[in-house]
Amino acid sequence: MQDLTICDESGSIVSGRVLFRTTLPESWRPSSPLSETLIDTSSADALKQKPKATTPLRRTASASIPIRSNPTPTRSSIQPVLTFSTAERYVLTRLRSRLPPDSQKLHDAWWIPQWGQNGEVFVFGNGSFVSWGLSEDEARRFAREVLAPCEVGSLREAETEELEFVTDPNEKTRIQGDLIILGRVSPLQDPSNDVTAQPPNSSLGTTTLLARYAYSQALSRSTALSALEESLEDYLSSVAQLPHSLEKTGKPGLGREALIKKLGALMKFRQGLNLNRENFSDTPDLYWAEPELESFFKAMTAALEVKARTNAVNEKITYATEVQSTLRQLLTESSGHRMELVIIALIAVEVVIALIREGPELYRMVVGTPKDNKPTSLSSAH
């Protein structure tokens, strides 16, 4: 019997006591049940398991093991960072009356310094919010009680990102693997960028407030992008049969109006991806004057692969637009062909009417038959 330290598939360390029973060759032992390996993991020694999530940070989760496995007296316990995208956008002006009194507008977000047992929330206008130190139930209660009346374009199912953080004043603020470490930060280049008023109750204080804000804004963009990716996948599934229908029947399978509506939906996707104020490409103005905050924002953006995912979505939209533009062109040509047939039919009708009206005269002109001379006076009759 011996103590071992092993890693599971996600990179998490599992410590425990392992009892090995060696399976001997058949010729060395009498008939007996197969030997087995028994693992008795002590819950007191086992480290906290990382939450399940689909974020790309899962691939670098092992980088956070040194922090997770070596607690220090100055380091806090590991707490969750939850990001939810529940709508296309929030009406922030309507939101203010529903927030706690100590809530503040912080650049592009509303900051709620105290919510639940010991957490805070950042609400962004792109339809997402980020909670620090809240359980999933508390975060969903916040969405249900506070944000639901302010949603525009509510999603059928909320998109989520799930990370963790610790606070340690002896460490430098950074992201390591899938763990955010809140520690030392440099003074702001422009003090006017700081919070306008110190709240009486703040769950995590204001020392690393703008660092949390920068990480939250990057997480918010990633989760909003996840919602857009999901909506685009649903859209692409709805039009996936169009090329197949064109190949098998020679017809698009959708009318002109339906295709135009689909193109409008694609334009809406691209507008939300590239042109809205809360898009996924531009760096917010705050970070131009604050290099350290910009490094926090870009580090999280890069870890979540926002740029690569944005390019992938743009490529899918471009492909779908080309397919539907081709189908619309075919519909236009089909409509033009039908119009030509209608014009030909009208010309034919006009020719028939003309023949009926002018037929006798044309016949006489062709065969040379003179017109009957009718008497013009009584004297001519004698």
Description:
It is a single chain. The protein has about 375 residues and is of the alpha+beta class. The strands form 2 sheets. Strands 5-6-7-8-4-9-11-10 form an 8-stranded mixed sheet, sandwiched between helices. Strands 1-2-3 form a 3-stranded antiparallel sheet, with no helix packed on it. It has helices at about 65-70, 90-95, 135-145, 210-240, 240-250, 255-275, 290-305, 305-365, and strands at about 1-5, 15-20, 40, 80-90, 105, 110-115, 120-125, 130, 150-170, 175, 180-185. Helix 4 (about 210-240) packs parallel to helix 7 (about 290-305) and helix 4 packs parallel to helix 8 (about 305-365). Helix content is about 40%, strand content about 20%.
List keywords for this structure.
alpha+beta, eight-stranded mixed β-sheet, three-stranded antiparallel β-sheet, 8 helices, 40% helix, elongated, disordered N terminus, disordered C terminus
